[in-house]
Each structure stands twice: as structure tokens, then as C-alpha cells.
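Box 3.1 A note on notation
Throughout this textbook, protein chains are presented in two layers. The first layer is the amino acid sequence; the second is a C-alpha cell string describing backbone geometry. Keep the layers aligned when reading.
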Amino acid sequence: MIWLILLLAGLLEVVWATGLKFTHGFTRLFPSLITLVAMAGSFYLLGLAMRSLPLGTAYAIWVGIGVIGAAIAGIILFREPVSTLKIISLLLIVAGMVGLKLA
């Protein structure tokens, strides 16, 4: 259950990181509200996960989910360029997250 909470925290991080792009510097109300609510939820769930998981593991996996999700969102929503190096780098992040989960 704790890993599901951490996954949800990471997914909310993707929402708020992506939402930042839509806020236009927090000048747009609705995207700003979504971003702030997602931030609060993400931090809250991360805090819950850290009750049971080591700090380094929980934080690294939370950030990893956010990095991978934000990169994918950038590619899909904002047509950011995709390169072999970018994909390999993202796969290395996934490998690190799996390693932390197994450690």
C-alpha cells in the first residue's frame, strides 16, 4: 500500500510540474488552482510514504516518477524533441528507481 501512495504522490508531481507550464507564471486562475492542489496532494502523500520508507528511497522514487512523467508530458503535450540519448537517460532513471526498490 505504501508504494501505491508513493506512486500517487509521484503522479501528482507530474500533474503540478506540467501544470506550471499552463499557469503562465500563475497568471491563469484555473491552471494555477489545479497546480497548487496537485502540489499539496503530492507533498502530503510523499510525507505519508516517508513514514514507512527511507528518506532517500522515497524521495528519489518520487522525483524519478516526476522526471519521467514530466519528460513524457513535454514530449506529448509540448512537442519537445525526442532523442536516443533522452530515452536512454530516462531508462537509466527507471533502472535506478528499480534498484532502490529492490535494495
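The CA atoms of residues 14 and 70 lie 5 Å apart. Helices lie at 2-23, 29-49, 55-77, 84-102.
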